[in-house]
Amino acid sequence: MLFALGLGDQVVAVTHECDFPPEAAAKRHLTRTVIADGLSAGEIDAEVRRVTGEGRALYELDEAALAGLDVDLIVTQAVCDVCAVSFDDVRAVAERLPTRPKVISLDPVTLSDVLADVTRLGEAAGVGERAAALRAELEDRLSAVREAVEGSLRPRVLALEWLDPPFIGGHWIPEMIGIAGGADPLGEAGAKSRTADWEELRAAEAELVVAMPCGWDAARARREVGDRIGEVESLGAARVVAVDAAASFSRPGPRLVEGTELLAHLLHADRVDPPPSVAFEEVPMPSPSR
What are the two backbone dihedrals, phi and then psi, of residue 245, each rounded to the nearest 5 degrees? Predict the structure, then answer.
């Protein structure tokens, strides 16, 4: 979002997860995860539960490095403790820094909140006019999607934010599905993602399953579907598509609009073209038995 606001040259450091645009990944990294690399989805889930159950943080912040950067503004989030350094930890560190930087926490739960955060962040960074222009552009694109799919049939869509165990898409995902011309039988806009068993997922009778494991790209999402292919096939959906969640679904930024455009294309290809440079992979499925 900062780069989209034209502030990339003022960003002096990022988290270890910040990788878009490519220039962001080249910035100094101030965080690291305590979860080991190379774990499977199920192992990651178990390790997250173990670490948090012990009352320990999942991420570490390099306070010494941050202190040497002379920052004026720290942007963080408290939407999900599994996704970032604790907001309370960031605020405590900021209070110890000699520059006493302002801390802004972006904590959206709906797509509308994400757009509102464009305004909040722009004003906090002193570029309110740029923020207004960016927000207007994003809202115009969403309006174009709504208009394109108006009056169409609404296929049932199941968004899987994790597959082992399965998590139903929450927060802004159901809203994105609705704007794109789909119906989400299990997700609730603004509610947190939640676990579900495969029996509940089968009962949803989804026509389209979108695999969007949080933080992973389309290729990894495709592999995750392959690892759980029996369960996924049992859902009976005519189509299963693996998408780049890290780019356009799990991160609350401007690219959620691209994700909405992609969903609209998947649901209504005759009405909406695919957004450029957004990766997705169709997963071959047998013909539904019902």
Answer: -65, -40
My answer on whether 78 and 216 are in the same domain is: no
Q: How do residues 233-269 score in pLDDT, each as one tens digit?
A: 999 999 999 999 999 999 999 999 999 999 999 999 9
| Residue range 148-167, pLDDT digits in tens | 999 999 999 999 999 999 99
Ramachandran bin of 58, using left for φ above 0, alpha for ψ from -120 to 50, beta for the remaining angles: alpha
Could you tell me if 147 and 247 lie in one domain?
Answer: yes
Are 176 and 270 within one domain? yes
Kind and range of the H or E element at 145? helix 128-149
Model confidence over 127-150: pLDDT tens digits?
Answer: 999 999 999 999 999 999 999 999
Question: Could you tell me the pTM of the whole model?
Answer: 0.93
The string of pLDDT tens digits covering residues 45-98 is: 898 889 888 877 788 889 899 999 999 999 998 777 666 677 888 888 889 988
Q: How far apart are the C-alpha atoms of 118 and 48, rounded to whole Å?
A: 30
Q: Which domain holds residue 98?
A: 8-107
In a domain? residue 185: yes
Distance CA 32, CA 39 (A): 16
Report the relative pairing of strands 102-105 and 73-76 from DSSP bridges. Answer: parallel
Phi, psi of 51 (to 5 degrees): -65, -45
Q: Which amino acid is at 287?
A: S
Write out the DSSP string of 64-129: HHHHTT--SEEEE--S-TTTSS-HHHHHHHHHHSTT--EEEE---SSHHHHHHHHHHHHHHTT-HH
Tell me how many degrees the CA angle 242-244-145 measures, rounded to the nearest 5. 90
